[in-house]
From TrEMBL:
This is Chromosome partitioning protein ParA. Gene3D superfamilies: P-loop containing nucleotide triphosphate hydrolases. Pfam families: CbiA. It comes from the Bacteria. The lineage of its organism: Bacteria, Bacillati, Actinomycetota, Actinomycetes, Mycobacteriales. PANTHER family: COBQ_COBB_MIND_PARA NUCLEOTIDE BINDING DOMAIN-CONTAINING PROTEIN, P-LOOP CONTAINING NUCLEOSIDE TRIPHOSPHATE HYDROLASE. Residues 3-169 form the CobQ/CobB/MinD/ParA nucleotide binding domain. InterPro entries: CobQ/CobB/MinD/ParA_Nub-bd_dom, DNA_Partitioning_ATPase, P-loop_NTPase. Keywords: Plasmid.
Amino acid sequence: MIITAINAKGGVGKTTTTMFLATVLANRGKTVTVTDLDRQGSALEWSERAEDGGSPLPFEVELSIPKRVDRQAALVGDDEFMFIDVPPGDENAIEAAIAVSDFIILPTRSAAADLSRVWELRDAVNGTPHAVLLTFARKGTSALDAAREALDEEHMPHFKTEIPLREDMHLAFGYCPGPDMHGYDHVADELIEMMK
């Protein structure tokens, strides 16, 4: 299964979502790889820092380019998972990832300006199964309530689990996620169910 987290906007949790979900599934015994299409190599740097710090990730991360991703995707077995980390605003990378994905996660913050990017991407996913994941969620706020309502009104599939705004999430970069998975373990459960 090939899963991509995309959003045209940066800072919404795409790489964090990718790395946490990959960790959850690898810890459950699944074969997982992460393909980093970001020229900055954020996922690869995360992996290297974790390894240098003595807590390597339970999966491989490799840097790639959009024109190679279809070849890499062809090697993924039915019981394996490949996550693709895509940079914001790179249309070639986004299109290449969408073309090979079995499922697309659309991470976004709950602010109206962030949600507007999700509406723009809805047509771009070309019928690929997808769902919005609300990240940096501040429980009990009107913005979060409005985001849920907007997703429901637009009949936009979304995860029931929302990733909370937590300071330690910002500190996760460069470390192997866990033991607290900040809700990503529940997102993984929902993802598996949606992909059936």
